[in-house]
Specification:
The complex is a heterodimer of chains A (339) and B (232). By secondary structure, chain A is α+β, with helices and mostly antiparallel strands. Chain A contains 8 helices and 20 strands. With 232 residues, chain B is mainly alpha-helical. Classes of the chains: A alpha+beta (339), B mainly alpha (232).
Chain lengths: 339, 232
């Protein structure tokens, strides 16, 4: 394991932003860290990047306990590099930006030049070597920041939303780079993203955070909901005033009214509107995305709120849905988890 | 009105002809002001940087005190330093009173808070991501500090330029600690005051022109460096 996290707590003032009882990160794998804004993704990345100390808990890096005292972190930081969501380049040339970390590691001049050329080649930015870094575009800045980190041959490469602020062309370049460095250099990669399909395409493993806690699911279908009873006295969960889902009495765990709701995308059934009459927890929606994912078909349906679901290829080929088509979702109570 | 115009024309002639007395006064002014600015830079920049870069109890109070010292009147500094370097003061045996060194000490005390406060402002403006980036690239505390300092360089130079502008135009310290001795401690401002007292406007106006020119030059430099800060 590259990281083993136990009983991790991070607080900012009275607010707990991370509460992770246990987490393991394997070596030489790509991990996607998913979660909504404020879920704690960046904080976790900063802690794993040894830039922030946890409030409580233990972290083992390569089976060694991490001591977050500043003097002890120095050597570890030379193995772990983090690239920010909006990376900043020093106001000097691209070349000198890459040279900074190498000089710190006392790498000789000839070797430095070779590594810098190689790293800039990797991100397709070699011709910008002597360009002033502060005048690069967002995508170019992101690529140079990645090259600057990779030039240091880290064991772990942490990337905060690497594609969120760049155009599609640069997104594809960055995804290719991440995949290539993991395959060719065996660098462990952890990146945060909002894009579930990107996570599924690129990552070997997915970690989902919701309000600072790990969520035991691969995909997000997590909503804010309100519990109430329908006119017949049956408990139901209302999501954003748009989706009314009946739930079992046994699912109501306490007297809370506001809850987080996870809808398991693999347990959602789907059919064409004309096939059968509507029953409880059936909702009509419009298909907004269809994508192949790990041997299945992932669909995103706008049913007032956007719901993701996974169906088998066989089922998909049998019915054939089109983007823009109206379909019916059937969400059984066992697909609904209150958190 | 004629007096002013005649004095101005004569003053221009004096400046253009590079009058020996005028040159000597400007030379003394530049010498003491440059030396005190360098001295204040050597003390004020590290002081401001350390305050801005470190976290310690009383940091906000320290910054408030420094900002208060920005408004310190030159005559108060003159009086304060005089108490130390006059014959009866603890530094009396060094014979500093009415020397250029006395002016330099007083002026340095005047502008150390200026340099330190402006340095703190320059460092505080630097994006926190520079520090984080340096750390994640493996930099130790000193190397991280260097990166932050480097990014704040234009702001720090602007601080020094502003401090020079302050001392070149001050009069209280130069008069009280220098004594306005001709050819030795007579600066542009003290000479102007003397010429005014004598009713001789030509040299005073000529010195005023030089002083304004220098101030204008300093302001140009200041805005150039401020512009570099904002374009970063």
């Amino acid at each position: 394991m590259i990281y083993t996290v136990s009983d991790l707590i991070k607080k900012y003032g009275p607010r707990t932003v991370l509460d992770i009882p246990y987490l393991e990160v394997e070596k030489e794998q790509i991990y996607a860290l998913l979660g909504a804004n404020g879920a704690g993704k960046t904080t976790l990345l900063n802690i794993l990047g040894l830039l922030e100390a946890p409030t409580a808990g233990r972290i083992h890096y390569c089976s060694r306990p991490v001591n977050y005292a500043e003097s002890a972190l120095q050597s570890l930081r030379k193995e772990v590099v983090l690239v920010d969501q909006h990376p900043i380049l020093f106001t000097t040339t691209v070349f000198k930006n890459l040279e900074f970390g190498l000089k710190i590691r006392k790498i000789n001049k000839k070797e430095r030049y070779r590594i810098i050329d190689e790293s800039l080649d990797l991100v397709g930015m070699r011709e910008f070597s002597s360009a002033p870094a502060q005048y690069l575009s967002g995508g170019e800045t992101q690529r140079v920041a990645i090259a600057r980190a990779l030039a240091l041959s880290p064991k772990v490469f942490l990337c905060d939303e690497p594609t969120s602020s760049v155009d599609v062309e640069n997104q594809n370049i960055i995804i290719t780079i991440l995949r290539r460095i993991n395959e060719a250099k065996k660098i462990s990669v952890l990146f945060t993203t909002h894009d579930r399909s990107q996570a599924a395409r690129l990552a070997h493993h997915t970690i989902v955070l919701n309000q600072g806690r790990l969520v035991p699911t691969l995909y997000e279908n997590i909503f804010r909901g309100v519990l109430q009873t329908d006119p017949s006295g049956q408990p139901q969960c209302v999501i954003q005033d748009k989706m009314h889902l009946s739930i079992g009495e046994d699912q109501v765990i306490d007297k809370r009214k506001a809850v987080s709701v996870f809808i398991d995308p693999e347990k959602i059934a789907v059919r064409k509107p004309s096939e059968d009459p509507a029953v409880a927890n059936e909702l009509q929606g419009r298909v907004v995305q269809i994508i192949e994912e790990n041997g299945k078909v992932r669909m995103v349906v706008d049913a007032g709120v956007w719901v993701a679901l996974l169906i088998s290829k066989k089922r998909y080929q049998k019915i054939v849905f089109m983007v823009g088509e109206t379909i019916v979702l059937s969400i059984p109570p066992e697909a609904i988890h209150l958190m | 009105m004629n007096l002013l115009i005649d004095s101005f024309i004569s003053a221009i002639r004096l400046v253009v002809s590079m009058d020996a007395e005028l040159d000597a006064i400007v030379g003394v002014s530049l010498k003491v002001s440059c030396t005190s600015t360098v001295l204040a830079g050597l003390i004020g920049v590290p002081l401001g940087f350390t305050i801005a870069f470190s976290e310690f109890v009383g940091k906000r109070m320290t910054i408030t005190v420094l900002n208060t010292l920005l408004a310190l009147p030159t005559v108060v500094i003159g009086l304060f330093v005089y108490a130390f370097i006059s014959r009866r003061g603890i530094f009396g045996p060094f014979d500093l009173l009415y020397t250029q060194r006395a002016i330099i000490i007083g002026q340095a005390i005047l502008i150390i808070p200026v340099v330190a406060a402006f340095t703190i402002a320059a460092i505080s403006r630097i994006d926190e991501r520079y520090r984080k980036t340096a750390m994640t690239l493996g930099a130790n505390r000193l190397q991280t500090a260097w990166i932050v300092f480097r990014e704040a360089r234009f702001g720090i130079v602007a601080a020094i330029v502003a401090a020079f502008g302050r001392v070149i135009s001050e009069i209280g310290i130069s008069m009280m600690l220098g004594g306005n001795i001709k050819g030795f401690t007579r600066t542009m401002t003290t000479a102007m005051a003397l010429e005014y007292d004598k009713g001789s406007f030509i040299l005073a106006v000529a010195l005023g022109i030089v002083l304004l020119g220098l101030s204008f030059g300093m302001n140009l430099l200041f805005h150039f460096f401020q512009g570099r800060v904002h374009s970063q």
